[in-house]
Write a structure and sequence with these properties.
single chain, alpha/beta
Length: about 100
């Protein structure tokens, strides 16, 4: 968050799991996400596992994000174990 505040990019890609890993981080994450909107910094939120969209939606309904329709990027596959993404991976996110 400090790097983004210092750099003030036009666009940023953020991992929900890193910036808001647990309920204890929710308040500081919400302040940061609202700051992004105030500063006209467009954010996309990276979701790495099929369970994260549910948590993301709960946070959205609780007002953590300042946008009405925040943008998500679903990550399919993994670099670490060289797993390629597959259509069935996307189906797991969408279900």
């Amino acid at each position: 968050m400090a790097v983004i505040k210092a750099l003030r990019p036009e666009v940023v890609s953020l991992s929900l799991g890193e910036l808001c890993p647990a309920e204890a981080a929710q308040e500081s994450a919400a302040k940061f996400f609202h700051w992004l909107v105030q500063e006209n910094i467009w954010a996309q939120f990276i979701l790495y596992s099929p369970g994260e969209p549910l948590r993301f939606d709960e946070l959205r309904r609780n007002g953590v994000f300042a946008q009405d329709h925040p943008v998500c990027l679903f990550v399919l596959g993994r670099y670490a174990d060289q797993t390629a993404g597959a259509r069935s991976d996307l189906d797991a996110f969408l279900s």
